[in-house]
Every structure is written in structure tokens, then in C-alpha cells.
Amino acid sequence: MAARQPGGALAQGSSGDEALPKGFKVTPVLKSTQTASNMAIEYPRGKAEIVSVIGELEPGGRTALHQHPVPVFVYILGGTLTVQAQGGPAREYKTGQAFVEDVNHWHQAFNKGTTRVKLLVVFTGEQGKPTSINAK
After folding, report:
1. The predicted structure's pLDDT at residue 9
2. Residues 36, 99: contact at Cβ < 8 Å?
3. Distance (Å, rounded) from C-alpha 82 to C-alpha 45?
4. Which pTM was predicted?
5. What's the topology of domain 33-134?
């Protein structure tokens, strides 16, 4: 099995292979220790909680300027999403691509296309605490 490394490179026989069931066919999506802006991924220290949602962004739509106090995995199910992180260049993600959102760093997502963007978002949060904070 090949595991996807940051930057899209593949590594054969990575050390994480032991965690997968034998005979289970997989298609690597993402394996990373960093966010999309090359920041280290850090987990909260309280009681862990996973929250997953399917989100949709209409053509011309955008999210609020926001940040996440927890690691967030995003997989593009359809369309093209543009993410602008504070102080960095805009990043574009197309159907089938994945990334880890920046933690405690302001960013905003846009649908600059003509079709709806559909995405799976998985928040690796802390029970009873917010997964996103909007700018005021």
C-alpha cells in the first residue's frame, strides 16, 4: 500500500500500514503532520470528540473569515474550493483532493466556480468546545 505524504509524494511501505486491516483495499487520500500552510498539527488536550459534516458552497459563495482551534480534515467531493489564509497565497482544491485546515490561523473559503462545491469536513475537536471561531 502506498501512503500519500505532504506535497503529494507517495511512500511505499510506510510505518502506518500496520494499522490497516489485512485484505482491505485502500486509496490513499492524505497523510500529513502539517496543515496546508505547513504548520504543525496539534490536538486538544481535553476529552476528544470527532464531528463530521458534508458542506456545500454555492457558486459565488464564501465562508466567514474564521479559524479552528482544532485540526480539521477537508476532502473535496465536488467542485473547486479556493482557500485564502491570512498572509499566504490562495490555494485551490479540486474534486478528490484533501487538506488539513490551519489551526488558530484566520482563513476564508470561496467558490469562484459556476458549480456547487461539496466537501466532507472532519473536525478532531474537544467535547463541549467550538470547532470554528468566526471573526467579529
Report:
1. 36
2. yes
3. 31
4. 0.79
5. Jelly Rolls (2.60.120)
